[in-house]
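pinned: reference chain
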Amino acid sequence: MKSFKTKFSNREAAISTAALPDIIFMLLFFFMVTTVLRKSDDNLKYKIPTAEQLKQIDEKSLISQITIGTPKDTEKYGTEPRIEVDGKFIEVKDIVAFIMKEKDKLPMYQRDQIIVMLKADEDVPMGLMTDVTQELKKANARRIIYGASWKVEEKP
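pinned: its structure tokens
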């Protein structure tokens, strides 16, 4: 049998790329709108302790951060250690309200899995740290991690 050839049989199908820039800009706009940027801790100065063993947490969406240290602006805020969350100073009694607000941001099935990261200066009094952990217990935030940096061995 003889095969029939048409004058269009040698052409390849072309894919239109006219909509490609529109799709790229839509994706770029989507990620720009949905990305959350955290403000750095500008109000406190602190040096976190060093550790020999550290574990990285994979569930970043469950972590809420509380920073404890001395204020950078000592004329305005004094020299006593302060507690900072989301760029604002709070008192110890306000920690429960902060944790409840953070739990409300999470889906219902993850609210009991909230992780609180305490970044505290090495020189913060242990009494303040105890008060903070007691308030976290009242808020039923039982998963507490402490921020630390790797201990660097000095060469002889």
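why pinned: The first strand starts at residue 44 and ends at 45. Residues 44-150 form one domain.
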